[in-house]
Design goal:
690 residues; alpha/beta; Catalase HpII,  Chain A, domain 1; Rossmann fold; 18 helices; metal ion binding; metal-binding
Length: 690
């Protein structure tokens, strides 16, 4: 068994290795392998004559260029991926026969693609939006795709409405604006007239829609699936990815500014973390229900606009995924990765969630047009590590060279092979659910409650989180041109909470025009608030402001404390190059004020040293750097003369404060460093007055 485990762990890497090409030091060739003697001039009839049609190298090169781009995804176009592995903590055989969930010694290769939903490939990554979190497991039984989002519910209950939803939030067709934003009339008109979206809107107006990092956001399978064991016993299940670093977000002002300063912010963060060895980790959690409990709750467990509150149905963590390798080529791997919720292995099956049922059809259709035909599964990133044997032939981009005369089933010429596998041989069998009823176009009455869980979400938020939701509504609706649409939305959300609707209306100059007092829900779910997440300083980025004449002793102590806790400290100064400490030590600057910004960092520390501080005091960029950090509720630290820089910005620096750690005594650097690292772990300090 151990030998098989070793093969399983590296099998995908070995498979991909044959497709990797390193052309360094090689001679230039055509795609047919013919060496090329000239690659700067096309073949002409004389030096000043026309290009000759027989120039096969020019035609091949230009034709390839003309066809290098494939259609981008309609949704989730802006994505970034990474490789890794998954290990289950203990056997899940009592719930499922899926082999990759049996043996804790097996490392199953995975590929993950994180993405925004609404924008095009060229849009910014910090826009207010849901995020995709799609994981491809290369199991020994075949491909399993867990196609998740960072929000556990969705806008609609039935896939029939998905085209309408997407058309509403895409740029409006008459002027192709706005890009990667829901802050416009057609989206909010859809919301007001499709009230099942209320719960999802509460999530997208919350901080969950502007994650600090792909490494710091949850993933949810959204739908209800089934786990089926060897005895044929089925349980309903919901899947969760829980980030080891906790769930953290940007603030809205910061997210907007990052979009202009660094539209690649989230992918850069992921890429650099992996390159540095700070491998992102996510624990796989499951919520499990017995079949007989399907109707035991005041919500329908098949409704994709509803969560299963964790306080009612706990999340059990069953394994961990580690992302430890960046892609070699974004197009070949990330862009050509084809995910599909219908890619399952024995032991994982579907429920009758009407949104999931529609997705099982649409994803294959999408891959056919994006990736050029029915053989997209042969693209290296999509290839199963399990052998593929069937009677499918030909088609665009067929890479396999099939041997033999038979391409059909049943047959006698090839001994009826490849032949179906029995259940005992690992053949996939669908769960035999009993189904009966008339053919109807309708949904269960249990799907009609659109507001109770939206109120549950509101009740679960901290006061700062509630204010952020109000501000987000005001911003989004403030961009709508139609006063009627704005009024409809204000009235709609009075069904969730009267105070919320009144606050939204106040920001828009509108009154609530209904008698609704909000959903009659008093319960809350603490698991929904980011105030209750894991908080750690590990892998956080701190800007250390310094110039010539900084105090080297204190800085070295600070950097040592950072290294012990896995905090990344970067020296930011007036210019690139080297700066000199008060004891003559040269230190390399990581970035200059001109080429970075406070939005790229989780906190700021000001180095001691009278000469250094005096130079920074008259540098507007340095003062703005500190001021923006303060306004975004991040930790600020200073020691010795560095405290003067806080005062110069107008920040009252004391021994302690809301996320401010400062001491005029240089010898106190040890205590300051420890307290500052704790403040960094706190992420945001909402009690601060800004």
């Amino acid at each position: 068994m151990k030998k098989d485990n070793r093969i399983n762990e590296s099998s995908k890497d070995k498979q991909l290795e044959q497709f990797r090409v390193d052309s360094s030091g090689e001679k230039l060739t055509t795609n047919q392998g013919v060496r090329v003697s000239e690659d700067e001039h096309s073949l002409k009839a004389g030096e000043r004559g026309p290009t000759i049609m027989e120039d096969f190298h020019f035609r091949e090169k230009m034709t390839h260029f003309d066809h290098e781009r494939i259609p981008e995804r309609v949704v989730h176009a802006r994505g970034f991926g990474a490789h890794g592995y998954f290990q289950v903590y203990e056997s899940m055989a009592h719930l499922t026969k899926a082999k990759f969930l049996q043996d804790p010694n097996v490392k199953t290769p995975v590929f993950v693609r994180f993405s925004t939903v609404a924008g095009s490939r060229g849009s910014a990554e910090t826009v207010r939006d849901a995020r995709g979190f799609a994981t491809k497991f290369y199991t020994e039984e075949g491909i399993y795709d867990l196609v998740a989002n960072n929000i556990p519910v969705f806008f609609i209950q039935d896939a029939m409405k998905f085209p309408d939803l997407v058309h509403s939030f895409k740029p409006e067709p008459h002027n192709e604006m706005p890009q990667a934003s829901n802050a416009h009339d057609t989206f909010w008109d859809f919301v007001a007239n499709n009230t099942e979206s209320a719960h999802m809107i509460m999530w997208t107006m919350s901080d969950r829609a502007i994650p600090r990092s792909f490494r710091m956001m949850e993933g949810f399978g959204v739908h209800t699936f089934r786990l089926v064991n060897d005895q044929g016993v089925s349980h309903f299940v919901k899947f969760h990815w829980k980030p080891v670093l906790g769930v953290h977000s940007l603030v809205w002002d910061e997210a907007q500014k990052i979009a202009g300063k660094d539209p690649d912010f989230n992918r850069r963060d992921l890429y650099e973390a992996i390159e540095m060895g700070n491998y992102p980790e996510f624990e796989l959690g499951i919520q499990v229900l017995k079949e007989e409990d399907e109707f035991s709750f005041d919500f329908d467990i098949l409704d994709p606009t509803k969560i299963w509150p964790e306080e009612i149905i706990p999340v059990h963590k069953i394994g961990k995924m580690t992302l430890n390798r960046n892609v070699d080529n974004v197009f070949a791997e990330t862009e050509q990765a084809a995910f599909h919720p219908g890619h399952v292995v024995p032991g994982i099956d579907f429920s009758n969630d009407p949104l999931l049922q529609g997705r099982l059809f649409s994803y294959t259709d999408t891959q056919l047009i994006r990736l050029g035909g029915p053989n997209f599964h042969q693209i290296p990133i999509n290839r199963s590590v399990a052998p593929v044997h069937n009677n499918q032939r030909d088609g665009y981009n067929q890479m396999a060279i099939h041997k033999g005369q038979v391409s059909y089933h049943k047959n006698s010429l090839a001994g009826n092979t490849p032949s179906p596998a029995a259940k005992e041989e690992g053949g996939y069998e669908h769960y035999q659910e009993k189904v009966e009823g008339r053919k109807v176009r309708s949904r269960s009455d249990s799907f009609k409650d659109h507001y109770s869980q939206a109120k549950l979400f509101w009740n679960s938020m901290s006061e700062p989180e509630k204010q952020h939701i109000i501000n987000a509504f005001r911003f989004e609706l403030g961009k709508c041109k139609s006063s009627d649409v704005r009024q409809q939305v204000v009235n709609m959300f009075s069904n969730v909470d009267r105070y919320l609707a009144e606050q939204i209306g106040e920001g828009l100059g509108l009154q609530v025009q209904t008698d609704h007092m909000g959903a009659d829900v008093t319960l809350s779910s603490p698991a929904l608030s980011q105030e209750n997440t894991v908080k750690t300083a590990f892998s956080r980025k701190v800007a250390i402001l310094a110039d010539n004449g900084f105090s080297g002793k204190e800085l070295n102590h600070l950097l040592m404390a950072f290294r012990e806790k896995g905090v990344q400290g970067k020296i930011i100064s007036t210019t690139h190059g080297m700066i000199k400490s008060d004891n003559g030590e040269d230190v390399e600057v990581s970035d200059a004020f001109l080429t970075t910004s406070p939005y790229e960092f989780d906190a700021v520390f000001i180095a001691a040293g009278e000469e250094s501080v005096n130079k920074l005091k008259i540098n507007k960029d340095a003062l703005d750097f500190i001021d923006e950090t303060y306004k975004h509720y991040k930790a600020l630290g200073a020691v010795g003369e560095g405290v003067e820089l806080l005062l110069a910005v107008g920040i009252l620096a004391t021994e302690s404060g809301p996320g401010i750690v400062a001491s005029r005594e240089k010898d106190d650097i040890g205590n300051v460093a420890d307290s500052f690292i704790q403040a960094v772990a706190g992420h945001r300090h909402w009690s601060r007055k800004v």
